Amino acid sequence: MPHLVLLYSGNLDRPAAQGGTDMGVLCRALCDALLTVRDEQDRQVFPTGGTRVLAFPAAHWAIADGGAAGEAAGRGGDYAFVYLNLRMAQGRSAAVHQRTGQTIETVAKAHFAAHLAGRAIGITVQVDEGHEVFDAKNSSIHPLFAPRKT
Q1: pTM tops 0.90
Q2: What residues are paired with 58 via a beta bridge?
Q3: Is residue 16 helix, strand or coil?
Q4: Of 42, 74, 95, 127, which one has the greatest count of Cβ atoms within 10 A?
């Protein structure tokens, strides 16, 4: 953990010239940013090998009024939306929750700055911490980041 999942309107998969964006670039930027989050003792909050960012476009979507208000406001009717949901294990402080959410929001707003300035787009960031009723982890990634014995 953490796992950051992005769900977004499929129109964002278009080329940039047609109102889209490079979601792979955003995923990498978000993953890198999550690895910089520190706790109150200045320790890295999230394990490098467990930090994952995944993005899924919606094949079908409907947003707000379908574009009428955007057209009337001169921002176009091709609305877009991205929902960023971070799920983390329990036990971190409220300060870490806030810092993590703000880190994700900062990266997302920077990535979508041109969209926010020129079109109607909704960006939602949500951080969840929950009580797992079942939690199994199997990974050959974590050992890659374990300290090596000399």
Answers
A1: no
A2: 9
A3: helix
A4: 127
